[in-house]
Amino acid sequence: MRGDRLISILLLLQSHGRMTAGELAEELEVSERTIYRDMDALSGTGIPVVAERGKNGGWSLLENYRTDLTGLKEAEIQALFVSPSAHLLEDLGLTRTSAEARNKLIASLPSTYRENARDVWNRIHIDTRSWRRQQEKTSSFEVLKRAIWEENKLMITYQTADGKQDDRIVSPLGLVAKGDLWYLIALKDNGEIRNYRASRIQRAELLDEAFTRPADFELAEYWNSSTKAFIKNLPSYEVKVEAAAAIVSRLTFSGRFARVLEVGAESGNGRVPVTLSFDTENEAIGYLLGFGDQVKVVEPVELGSRILEMAERTAASYREQDNSN
To answer: Any idea which GO molecular function terms this record carries (predicted)?
Structure first.
């Protein structure tokens, strides 16, 4: 363990330039006394570590000193070389750059690790696209990326879920890919951070006005928090049904959004009690109608009545069509 920690110290100093004993101790989760002992050990092996006293002091490496030692373990190498999502890299215009970077990284590895790193590409591939959804495109994607890197405000024309459009001035903080969908994370003038589905941005204009990113903003941390809040606040419409045993395993593969909360034991009539959750009653109706007589609503009773009413209207429309022919 100590050997790994010494390598970690060396790489941290190469990356940060100068760090205090306290910062190193916090990063490596050891005591400052341990750090001082490790520094003595590094110095004893000929590594030119330099201690500077004073308010802005700390530990650093002698100027221009570099090491080719990666310090990477086998599992860490595998983590680096797992293939990223190709179509997301394509969206960002980084497909070729990513391949070149990985080739350079392979060249920097000790020879004993190179073949293992290459092998990872042939054993694990990540594709974040769903089977049926077509990839959403936005003509403004390049403008969004530029605004994020240059820290310029944007004027966007955004289409909401109900089809309405309006113009908004936002300060773009980052892009997040959720599955095969992209979201723009942006700051409004009132200080509120909002998520905008990139495919709904009908137009984006880069403004000649810079903004200052919040110093404490962390994109991944914000997205995780936003996702949890979104899931917590999702509407819930719970339905109890009796489903034919043969179709229970298909309930989550209908192409519609439904959550299976509970599956009971099969009864003597070949039916299985299942509790489902939907966002709305209309979603439940569309979902359950698709299974015909293979699913029967138990609760709420009024949902069963609405499904019967809709089925009768559907049947009547087909009878009218037959009679007109």
So the answer is: DNA-binding transcription factor activity
